[in-house]
Amino acid sequence: MAWILIIFLILLGGLIAPFGDLLGTRIGKARFSILKLRPKKTATIVTIITGSFISAISIGLLILFSEEFRQRLFVDIPFLQKTLDESKKALVPLKEERKRLEDKINYKERELNKLKSDVKEFRRGNVVLKRGQTLFIGEVTSNPNIKADLGKIYKSADRYVQKIVIPNKKEIKNILLWRTSDISEIEDITAKSGNWIILIKSATNVLRGDNFVFVYPELLQNKIVLKRGEVITSEIIEKKDLDYKNVNSKIQTLLKKTRDEIKLRNSIANEITTRGDFIKKIRDSIKINQNNQYLLEVVSLKDSKTADPIIVELNITKL
Fold first, then answer.
1. Phi-psi region of 137 (alpha: psi -120 to 50; beta: other; left: phi over 0)
2. What percent of the chain is modeled with pLDDT above 90?
3. I need a surface site. Which of 127, 169, 188, 224 has the fewest CB within 10 A?
4. Do residues 244 and 254 touch, judged by C-beta distance below 8 A?
């Protein structure tokens, strides 16, 4: 059936094509015009229409007599288009995941290169200061003599670092190297009203005996991060956890959450100081009342600013 249809279409095209050519020639000789076009252009248009007519008849006959052609045209092609659209949509999260993985790989490569660099420096000598380590903390309040106050901080930091890096050298000299833009930025910010904390950090690993230390600053506003009597974190102890091992685990978890919380508030305190024998207090309460739930709270004992030490107590309340 398919071969018969193909032969028929070839014969039909062969019959109509000369007819279209003849018709175009006749129209050209008759000087016939459509839409005020020149006869030559009119003949060309007629020839084009005839060719289009051949194509239309061919497609129509294929649709009429070929079930396979109808299947491909009206079912397969739309299905393939829909599948293609769905595939494109499915590729979007895959592209995002690929980008996320590439970013993670790049980050790991940077970490690896940094580790390799650190290992090389450790092999070369005794590392006394690590990259990113806070070397000195200074506090300054905005005033007309801010540059002089900043100069005192820089000088104190220089002497402190020198005692670590070259402790045997009696000659006092400037060992810290700053970027000029960092100094200017500190002066511009601290000139405005406010109380500020300056963290001076090492830009590289430093070996004992090095003559210079490259540093960069981190500037924080010195504000109250905790108020006296404030509950920083809390945890509920269930009846099933009322044994010493679980209680100790809960306390350690709660203190870790407290450290994370004060860091989120930009506190630079490294440790939390606890007051009172809270372990004994908690154990005594649990020993007396074994059938209750308890609320364990970490409470601040003083107002603490950004650079102040954090002093807390743990309170236990029966629920």
1. beta
2. 13
3. 188
4. no
